[in-house]
Design goal:
By secondary structure, the protein is an alpha+beta fold. Helix content is about 35%, strand content about 20%. The longest helix has 25 residues.
Length: about 200
C-alpha cells in the first residue's frame, strides 16, 4: 500500500477553503497562488519544513489518542492540570488571608441608611430603620423595598430615639394559604392632646 508523504503545503492547499475562511475571520484576504508562492519561499528560507516528529497521518493520530486517553493516562493528565492551573490559584486565594467576616447587623437592629442623592441642607443619613432580613452582604430594612448593601448603613444607638416610634409587628395567617403568614406593622406615634 503506497502511502504518499504529505507536507504542510499540500495539506493546506487541499483544504484551502478552510484556510481562506480562517484568514477571512482574521480580516485577511488570501489567494491560492500567492499563498503557495509565499509558503514555498518562506519555508525554504527559514528551513521551516515538515516537522520531523509530527504527522497528519490518521492511523498514527488515532493510536496516539488511544494512548493518551486510557484511564491511567487521563488521570495523570488531569492531575498535572490541577497542579499547574487549579492549585496555584487556590494557593494565591488563601495566601491573601482569611475571607472577611460578615457584617455585624442582625434582624432587629436599628440602622441609618445613606442617601444616594444628597441635596443641600438635607441630612446624609435617613432613618432610623429596623433590619428585617440579612445576607452576608446585604440588608432588608423596614420601609425600603430594595435590599441595601451593608456598607451603606450605619448603626443607631437604640437609646437615642423615643420608644413610641418603635414599629409594632403582628402576624396573621394568610387567607388563601394556611402555610403562609402575613406580617403587618404600624408605628405607634405619640398622640398630641389639644386643649
Amino acid at each position: 500500500m503506497g502511502q504518499t508523504q504529505s507536507t504542510p503545503l499540500s495539506l493546506m492547499l487541499s483544504r484551502f477553503s478552510d484556510v481562506r475562511e480562517r484568514a477571512h475571520n482574521l480580516s485577511t484576504d488570501i489567494q491560492r497562488g500567492k499563498f503557495q508562492i509565499y509558503c514555498m519561499s518562506e519555508w525554504q528560507t527559514f528551513d521551516a519544513g515538515w516537522p520531523r516528529e509530527g504527522t497528519f497521518h490518521l492511523p498514527i493520530i488515532l493510536q496516539l489518542l488511544q494512548v493518551l486517553f486510557t484511564t491511567k493516562e487521563r488521570e495523570r493528565i488531569q492531575e498535572e492540570a490541577r497542579k499547574s492551573h487549579v492549585w496555584p490559584k487556590l494557593r494565591a486565594f488563601y495566601e491573601t488571608g482569611p475571607p472577611p467576616d460578615p457584617h455585624r447587623y442582625r434582624p432587629g437592629d436599628w440602622v441609618f441608611m445613606r442617601r444616594y442623592q444628597h441635596q443641600t441642607l438635607q441630612p446624609r443619613w435617613k432613618g432610623p430603620y429596623i433590619v428585617i432580613l440579612t445576607t452576608p452582604t446585604a440588608l432588608s430594612v423596614d420601609g425600603i423595598t430594595p435590599w441595601v448593601h451593608y456598607t451603606h448603613v450605619q448603626p443607631v444607638d437604640p437609646h437615642t430615639f423615643l420608644k413610641d416610634f418603635v414599629p409594632e409587628w403582628k402576624s396573621q395567617p394568610d387567607k388563601d394559604n394556611p402555610l403562609k403568614l402575613r406580617l403587618h406593622h404600624y408605628h405607634l406615634f405619640p398622640t398630641s392632646k389639644t386643649p
